[in-house]
Amino acid sequence: MSVTANILPSKVVDRVAVRSWKTPILFGALALFAVVVFVLLGPSGHATFRLSQEGDAWQVPNLVLPAKVFGIIVAVVCVLLAAQSYRQMKNDGRIAKWVTMTFTVAFVIGLMVWIIGGTKTQNITLVGLFTGAMLITTPLVFGSLSGVLCERSGVINIAIEGQLLAGAFTASLVSSITHNAFAGLFAAAVAGVFVSFLLAAFSIKYVVNQIIVGVVLNVLVSGLTGFLFEKIMKIKVDGVTIYNQPAQLPDLPIPFLSEIPVIGPTLFRQSIIGYFMLILVAALWFGLFRTRWGLRIRAVGEHPMAADTVGINVNRTRFLNVLAGGAVAGIGGAYFTLVAVSSFSKDMTGGLGFIALAALIFGRWNPIGAALAALLFGVAGNLQSILSLAGTPIDGQFLAMLPYALTILAVSGFVGKSRAPAADGEPYVKG
Amino acid sequence: MKLELKGITKSFGALIANDHIDLVVESGEIHSLLGENGAGKSTLMNVLYGLYEPTAGEILVDDKTVKFSGPADAMAAGIGMVHQHFMLVPVFTVAENVALGAESTGPGGILNLEETRRKIREISARFGFDVDPDALVEELPVGVQQRVEIIKALVRNAKILILDEPTAVLTPQETDELMDIMRQLKAGGTSIVFISHKLREVKAVSDTITVIRRGKVVGSADPSAATTELASMMVGRSVSLTLDKADAEPGPVTFKVTNLTVMNDAGQRLLDDVTFSVADGEILAVAGVQGNGQTELTEAVLGLHKHVQGSIVLDGNELVGRSVRQVLDAGVGFVPEDRQDDGLVGEFSIAENLVLDLYKKEPYSKFGSMNRAVIAKNAEAKVAEFDVRTQSSQDAADTLSGGNQQKVVLARELARPLKLFIASQPTRGVDVGSIEFLHKRIVAERDAGTPVIIVSTELDEVLELGDRIAVLFAGKLMGIVPGKSSRELLGLMMAGLPADEARAQLDGTVAGTAGTTPAGTAGTTEGERS
């Protein structure tokens, strides 16, 4: 045995606890907002949440909350939690998860009640809110899962938007021609893979800057689908367009489960793409964090040379992951034309591919986190369109901005630290 | 297992990094590859490990020719490597890192880390490593990370272990421990290839020494060979390894640092309440393992850091809060630790690099226009004075070797009349021949009456140059000791023991016993100037 062993510092070097006051400050500001807006400016009426639709098997009574009283309760809870977060940061240097979670939930519910209470009708159907949100959430989830696959292996995928759009176009075209929605779905995946192939070839094989390739691909796909839309999809035979009439994927309600109030119609009354999404989120999480496949991918994304020195082919791993990401985003694109609306229109993805990137970052490069972020963005987006119909005290456009303002806060480290894979965007070239 | 390299040649374009290298590593021996930085040792080992494909030559394992198309082949043949820069994923646990690439899995590729944990514990127990399989690698000290690398190789049944400059990141005590581990591995039948440029270590641990110079094997030596003999083989001419330096004749104290604290953006203390002073005509060497606050100390003096508290006084003037230009104008000469990134503009000529901080002043420029003739003349003079080996002073700075680049930096910084000279890692990656020259110039600056601060992670250099030695650990000053202090004492301080506790431990007394603190140790920061 070594005689000198006992003098080495045996434990990890003590670190000065880094106290970040961002979160307590943010909570403090939001609590103040709650006091001023929910209590002082609170509406006097009631906010009604309709939980069941007519014709549901189980009728659940509406949730009616007195807006003012509820606002006071939320404000008090927020103030207490903000104080607690300050205390915890001061004493322990970190904030317990339950404080952050409870605060967020309380604040969001408080905000909802205040907004609904302030509308003319003072009621909202939660089923409509969530099922409508899924129209936005589903492509967002596929887009961000594509991002997870690519970025966990170290390739930045800015081309998600292009992949979604290529998927949407191809699905519509192929489904229209074959009259088979599943053929359209498959073709969409292939189209996504094709866009990914370009991304992978240029960024991995020819080491072109990944951001630039991604942006160029988005423009390319937008131009190409726009051109083909004009030239092919507008062809009319006997007065009808035949190449933009895709056969649709039907909803497949799951017996019993689909009858659960709110959750049932949202999650268990979907098309096959929706169910695939649920499975994919879970499978990808499990794959990334519990299997050999995932360990290797994460190693390639964090420290490619370390992976190389234990015999993992870095660039092949990345190439395959980018292709898989393309397939996933392509399927997400198919959702637009096979489920959400019944035909393709130019640039119909409307920037959702970029929002998917934000969801990816907000979800900390974790499939489940990204899916929850996508759900948040979806709900916020749909809430805005519902409220603009109901007449709100605040402008709908302002509400639509909130989730993205939240993303910026999240990315800049207000709500915990978001850390990208260390080699994300770094090409790997052997010496 | 016996390993033989026959006529290995590796060229990168016109550059021949390895030129017909023959090497035989016998079973169960520690074979050292000795050579300067850039001699081609690492390239050779990367060829052996399958990372590079040799241009010519063959590799034989147990007298059978093998061909490696990647590290996986090399590992399968029983070759393991501990790289100079660790190949560990920081956000993975020890077990995940060890398992990577050779995972035990259940059905469907589901990871089974229990098997890996068991192997890690087994190897840990055998060699006395204290490694927790579930610790996150990024939270482990470098010495432990290195053991994880060794475990990684052993788990893969390596019969030949290549250690590439393994001591560069270790304290002297950790180095001693590593050598013990190497001997244990050897006793267990593992062959070791030990790559180093540190003569003392090579002599201490080797069975055979092969010396490489400029990509060629220049000979082999016995570990009992004299240090000077090894050095001259390595460098190609006779070198004097000891600096003939007169004792310092310290004048008045003109540079004082008081309660200096440097923080990063997150508020972490990178330098924590450091107080010291340097007198005219004295060299203070700052020792410590890489990353313990040395960089921040020099950057704070120069005015490169945002979050600085405390006071830095030079010649009666406060430097904290001044801009870099004001600090330079106050008479501070600075050699940054990374000369290629911070010390030179690689694409600029040597002549231009020599006036990087003077170009605004006459006679180098007038009315905003540079006087190229004067700059060229200055360059000729400096190149001659500092023995910069170059074809022309108009060549780009990055065509020079490391040692010659450093001479250019030093020539520029010493060109002005200085009130303080700071050199960070003045000889890192510099050939032995140039080290001698650079050290002499630094001592000459001291003898001219300038206070000098040398920051170095090389203990040899610290002992060579320092009139007094300050040791930093985790941003805190462990104390200041006389220049002739023992390696053991410095090693303990570098590992985090304050000077008095370190002395107490060396004296065999129990550190921290109440009432036994020797008188005077309270004043270790100021009271030790001899």
UniProtKB/TrEMBL annotation, chain A:
Domain of life: Bacteria
Pfam families linked: BPD_transp_2
Keywords: Cell membrane, Membrane, Transmembrane, Transmembrane helix
Mode of membrane association: Multi-pass membrane protein
Subcellular location as annotated: Cell membrane
Residues passing through the membrane, by range: 25-43, 63-83, 95-117, 123-142, 154-175, 181-204, 211-229, 272-289, 319-342, 372-392, 398-416
Native source organism of the sequence: Arthrobacter silviterrae
PANTHER family: GUANOSINE ABC TRANSPORTER PERMEASE PROTEIN NUPQ, SUGAR ABC TRANSPORTER INTEGRAL MEMBRANE PROTEIN-RELATED
Protein name (database record): ABC transporter permease
InterPro entries: ABC_transp_permease (IPR001851)
Automatic annotation (TrEMBL), chain B:
InterPro entries for this protein: AAA+_ATPase, ABC_carbohydrate_import_ATPase, ABC_transporter-like_ATP-bd, ABC_transporter-like_CS, P-loop_NTPase
Any single Pfam family the record assigns to this protein: ABC_tran
Keyword Membrane: no
GO molecular function: ATP binding
Matching PROSITE patterns: ABC_TRANSPORTER_1, ABC_TRANSPORTER_2
Keyword ATP-binding found: yes
Domain ABC transporter residues, every copy: 3-239, 255-499
SUPFAM superfamilies: P-loop containing nucleoside triphosphate hydrolases (SSF52540)
Cited SMART domains: AAA
Ranges where the record places region Disordered: 509-530
Protein keywords: ATP-binding, Nucleotide-binding
PANTHER family: CARBOHYDRATE TRANSPORT ATP-BINDING PROTEIN MG119-RELATED, GUANOSINE IMPORT ATP-BINDING PROTEIN NUPO
Protein name, entry field: ABC transporter ATP-binding protein
